[in-house]
Amino acid sequence: MSTSSTSDTPIIGTHNGHFHADEALATFLLKLLPVYRHATITRTRDPEVLQTCTIVVDVGGIHHHQALRYDHHQRDFTATFPGKSTKLSSAGLVWMHYGKEIISTVTNLSIQDADTELLFQKIYEDFIEAFDANDNGIPLYDPSALRKANIEPKFSNKGFSIAGVVNRYNYAPSAREGGEGATANGTTTSGAPNPAKAGKSQDEEDARFLGASSFVGQQFVLELNDRFASWLPARAVVKEAFAARKQYDDQGRIIVIPYKPEGVPWSDHLYTLEEEQGAKGEVLYALFAESGEKDSKWRIRAVSLDAGSFENRKGLPEQWRGWVYWWQPDVRGGVADGEEGGGDVRGLGLSTSEVGVEKG
User: Fold this and answer.
1) Which of 293, 297, 309, 302 is nearest to 255 (CA)?
2) Tens of pLDDT along 185-229?
3) Transmembrane residues, as ranges (predicted)?
4) Of the residues 227, 261, 293, the one at which a domain ends
């Protein structure tokens, strides 16, 4: 095996051959840490070569944090993220052991900060756990229960997921195809097939892997930055609005979200606050201003049954769907499924909510 690294340059080891989303993400996460920022990546299944690597993910048959070995394929492996039941993949292992340090590096939060813990949990739940489930063959729903209920998918979404995109990198043409020499970051592979016999160089396969790793890493960075810059600050805003909701409806069915120029991602926090305070499913509608101006238009949105659902707890009245208000059709807003509408003043918007609550 040839490598461009010097003896003191860390080496991240993973397997060669067909790759998946979990090790693509695991290697990217490690390279966010200062100690591995300039590390090279060696893709091999050769045990002797793996022994020379500083840290190894998704290959080697060992999970040993002190030895910096993070494989999950061994028969007796059962590790899960704290409080979760999904078996970890290499992505989840790296996140469990290094996630807080990664958050601190990217955001400058202290590792001990309570917000770091919030982000650590949230990023796993909303992003990384799906990598773990996908690589371990754990379905989102129980297939036998679906079959028993005669529920069949309406369409195929296998090419829509991150895992589906990563899989395409295994086959899609690469800019490195037919190239010679090491990849840009010094990635090498021991035991590579002879290009003349295989029809494709190992270097080209490594380039595909780097492309996949860059892709999933980009999604991770977007997720973390959004959670840090937008989701985290919104928590306090939504908590205050949730506490004040009975000012507008004595049963607390309407929440008024104050305008913030950076936006307020409110729905996720609403579900959490309802759960924490024993008020699950209570809020039916959210009202929020379109601007900070005194005469701002206000919008009303029906709250979804749960995060990611296309169903509402209580849709807007049928006669308003596809319109904003039947008495004011020139005002912008409204969709056909009863999810959203708009109005000129806050009072009018509240009236819309109240009618929806009582008559929808």
Assistant:
1) 302
2) 444 444 333 444 445 688 899 999 999 999 999 999 999 999 999
3) none
4) 227
CA separation for the pair 324, 320 (Å, rounded): 6
Which of 304, 302, 269, 292 has its CA nearest to residue 346?
A: 292
Cα torsion through 123, 88, 215, 30, rounded to 10: 80
pLDDT in tens, 241-267: 999 999 888 899 999 999 998 889 999
Residues 6+ apart with CB under 8 A from 263: 230, 234
pTM: 0.78
Residues 129 and 273 in one domain: no
Question: Does 324 have pLDDT greater than 90?
Answer: no
Is residue 102 located within the same domain as residue 251? Answer: no
